[in-house]
TrEMBL record:
Residues 16-213 form the Flavodoxin-like fold domain. Homodimer. The keyword Lyase does not apply. It holds the Pfam family Flavodoxin_2. The lineage of its organism: Bacteria, Pseudomonadati, Pseudomonadota, Gammaproteobacteria, Cellvibrionales. Belongs to the azoreductase type 1 family. The keyword Glycoprotein does not apply. Also exhibits azoreductase activity. Catalyzes the reductive cleavage of the azo bond in aromatic azo compounds to the corresponding amines. Quinone reductase that provides resistance to thiol-specific stress caused by electrophilic quinones. It catalyses: N,N-dimethyl-1,4-phenylenediamine + anthranilate + 2 NAD(+) = 2-(4-dimethylaminophenyl)diazenylbenzoate + 2 NADH + 2 H(+); 2 a quinone + NADH + H(+) = 2 a 1,4-benzosemiquinone + NAD(+). Keywords: Flavoprotein, FMN, NAD, Oxidoreductase. It comes from the Bacteria. Its EC number is 1.6.5.-, 1.7.1.17. This is FMN dependent NADH:quinone oxidoreductase. Transmembrane segments: none annotated. It comes from Teredinibacter turnerae (strain ATCC 39867 / T7901).
Amino acid sequence: MSTLLHIDSSVRAANNANSDQNSISKNIALRFVDTWKRNRPEDDYIYRDVGMNPPDFITQDWIGAVFTPENKRTPAQKERLALSDKLIDEVSAADVILISSPMYNYGMPAQLKAWFDQIVRVNKTFDFDLSRGDFPLQPMLSGKTLIIVTSSGEFGFEKGGLREVSGHLAPHLRTLSKYLGADKMYEIASEYQEFGDDRHRLSVANATNRAEKLASELSISTPAGSVKNGIATM
């Protein structure tokens, strides 16, 4: 049995009274999840909608608690890190991580950034050693598969595309993926939302089909055992 962790980050719901307001990224991700569950009903499933229920932003006191040795933390510091601990536990438990995100102002939503800030944490998801020279940070998790579903109002954010230099969502997710322990990463993108034309409709349809096909492929190839923190378990 494996664990699928599903993170949605759009501030829109998947289904609204006005369907024009439905979150595209959430609905594409949902197609992946539905296919996965149909093929692997025995798997564990963890869901967080950080768009609708955003994690707390980190603060000076949060940073102070992180850099206080665990055996010296006050009850207040432990409470301040409780959410971070829980979110990290969810990532650690996951074999497959699905993140859906719209592009807001050419980057990720603040709510998703807040989730990452709670998770990318020294001595939890990375360690720090100056003996490594110019690359002292080393991820501590491994063996996971990450799927990112993105939606954007414009188009051409891919490498060599018309707006390559303006697209910071997917590159940021790629950079942070190693702190989630992702050894494999797949990207599904929907574009042209602001244009609302046939290009947009085709892009959404292709992304939805890609999500379903990828879920089918990965649900077959993902082993029943899991690899967590670099250690295989059955």
